[in-house]
């Protein structure tokens, strides 16, 4: 049996383990949160190195993208460098393939993404494939990178502006401790009420809210039937979204035993199936394997 483990800076309350069979191979897939403790995450990575088939880094990005430029997050690189033997991934390969394909799937097979629909993407540089696809299909997108990650009340309206701003500020932002940019540990279990009041209108003006679940959750006001397009969700997350008034949940990764895992976990699974170093895997190989696995987005009505 192959073992894939996600080591996350997020809350240990979200830990989960499943056994599944994919393309004839049995997998044990698990997620282990370290409650925002960076040193604990480093120690766990070193403990797992050489003992599992792939490791995913959760609750943190190693690479952010805008256009053709890639920006490396220093804290993410430190975690990745702790692993010497086992393939280690951050999910960015799937964010540029699976999540892009999810957008196309929703346009082709549902009425959730009509042309011109207003979309709030809470952060685009960590899911640039999704951002490009939404823009390509003619959605009216507001990118909230500055608002929700940097605390700067400025909505970005175009891909070109996003790339320009990213080139100016990301080289310095990626040097900051990651907890200053993204909710880790206990922050994943709470909302930032001040920013909910200040910036909640961006959610309410949109019909689709897309992006990382923890960012989506942390700043979410009451909703009026909006569609949420995101990644990792638990049964408790589904209850939260229903209570907030969301109309539909779309998760880009498949559901296993009541929850969807993060892109880092699923990318770890795919690396284990492909038997190739992560750096050598092409987008085409990911797409081919996604077709063989028949991964489709989960679409769950909430109303």
Automatic annotation (TrEMBL):
Protein name: Quinate 5-dehydrogenase
Organism, as annotated: Desulfotomaculum copahuensis
Phylogenetic classification of the source organism: Bacteria, Bacillati, Bacillota, Clostridia, Eubacteriales
Domain of life: Bacteria
């Amino acid at each position: 049996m192959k073992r894939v483990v996600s080591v996350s800076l997020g809350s240990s309350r979200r830990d989960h383990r499943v056994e599944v069979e994919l393309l004839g191979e049995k997998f044990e897939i698990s997620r282990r949160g370290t409650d925002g403790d960076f040193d604990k995450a480093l120690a766990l990575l070193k403990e797992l190195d050489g003992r599992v088939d792939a490791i995913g880094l959760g609750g943190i990005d190693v690479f952010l993208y805008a256009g053709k430029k890639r920006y490396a997050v220093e804290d993410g690189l430190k975690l990745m460098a702790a692993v010497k033997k086992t393939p280690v991934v951050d999910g960015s390969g799937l964010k540029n393939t699976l999540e892009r394909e999810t957008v196309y799937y929703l346009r082709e097979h549902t009425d959730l993404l009509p042309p011109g629909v207003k979309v709030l993407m809470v952060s685009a540089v960590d899911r640039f494939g999704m951002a490009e696809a939404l823009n390509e299909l003619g959605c009216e997108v507001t990118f909230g990178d500055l608002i929700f990650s940097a605390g700067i009340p400025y909505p970005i309206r175009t891909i070109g502006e996003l790339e320009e701003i990213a080139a100016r500020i990301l080289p310095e932002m990626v040097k900051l401790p990651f907890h200053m940019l993204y909710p880790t540990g206990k922050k994943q279990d709470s909302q930032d009420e001040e920013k909910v009041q200040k910036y909640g209108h961006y959610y309410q003006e949109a019909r689709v809210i897309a992006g990382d679940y923890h960012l989506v959750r942390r700043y979410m006001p009451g909703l009026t039937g909006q569609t949420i397009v995101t990644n990792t969700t638990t049964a408790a997350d589904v209850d939260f979204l229903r209570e907030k008034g969301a109309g539909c949940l779309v998760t880009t990764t498949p559901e296993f035993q009541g929850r969807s895992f993060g892109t880092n976990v699923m990318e770890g699974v795919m690396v284990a199936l492909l038997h190739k170093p992560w750096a050598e895997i092409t987008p085409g190989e990911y797409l081919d394997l996604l077709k063989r696995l028949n991964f489709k987005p989960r679409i769950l009505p909430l109303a």
